[in-house]
Description:
The protein is α+β, with helices and mostly antiparallel strands. It contains 11 helices and 14 strands. The chain folds into 2 domains: about 1-140 and about 325-345, Aminopeptidase, CATH 3.40.630.30; about 145-325, Aminopeptidase (3-Layer(aba) Sandwich), CATH 3.40.630. The chain has a 7-stranded mixed β-sheet, with helices on both faces. A 7-stranded mixed β-sheet has the order 8-9-10-11-12-7-13. The model has no long low-confidence stretch (mean pLDDT about 95).
Amino acid sequence: MTILNLNDTEKVNAYQSFVREDPRGQVTQDPLWGELKANWGHVYVYHETDGQIDAVLTVLTVEAVPGKLLGYAGRGPIGDVTNIALIKSLLEEALAALPENVFLIRLDPEVAYSDILNDAYQAAGFVTRNRDIKNMHGNIQPRKNVVLYYDGRGEGAVPITNDTELMTHFKRDYRNQIRRAAKDGVTVTSGDTQDDVRAFFDTYVMMAAAQNITHRPIDYFLHMQKLWQNTGLFKVFLAHFEGQVIASGIGFSYGDEIWYMYAGSNRQYAKHYGPYAVQWEMLKWGLSLGKVEYDFGGVGDFVPEDGLYKFKHGFAYHDPHAEYIGELDWVVDEMGYQEYLKQFD
């Protein structure tokens, strides 16, 4: 195990290439994510076999209880998470480099839940937080996601190789709504400029207000744009109608998937189905890149009563539900850990 030296350009590039190109690569394990989270500390650990990186652990730290740091590996580590000895060695290396007041390192790899894997991590000394957590917001990242699989999974699904097959993968009313948006004159552009981000942000704020939820500041997204511009890994999609941006989405292309991370919409134009037009173009982007998965993000539960599920499921109703292992907590300071957990009660 080795701590990444951020002054070693060659090794940083190798680390980033692994995170971006490995099938299970994740944007939140890219050192650029550490730069985006400017107020967090960071440590980057990697493992090599025959001189090639084959596992990484990006840990960001923030004060989560007074005087004590949470170490969080968002959607990480990237590597063989069934090799628990390897994962523990990455953790040990990270802890040796982190401040002494870290009370917890939390992993949440994007790997399917199984009793076998859950039991194995518990036996190795981890606290696992998955099926016992009933609230979607009881975990940092949602544990249940809607995913469209381009390679054809689930009953009635076939591999998707072109736009026609992609369209027929959706529910019939979703196909009609996408066509209705086009008939009404809705067009969708994509880009990675500051203007794209500012247009997205306007609809993002509208959506947050309509749903009575908090939102990130504009500077966060402008910093994101600056970091990922011209990488081809980041795109902002904007649905336009009569000179207005009426819906938007931000996606990242890492590993074998597109991650639909942020969205916005102006409900005044709901009858023109801008969000459906945005999804259509984002899904075609994933298809054009030869991706295996399109991750619509989290839902509270896989039931029609869940509003997030209701919208997302119509695009991926053939596809099996994605239920991840959840959080794998390596507790360093039990008192700090118990204090931290109180906020999730």
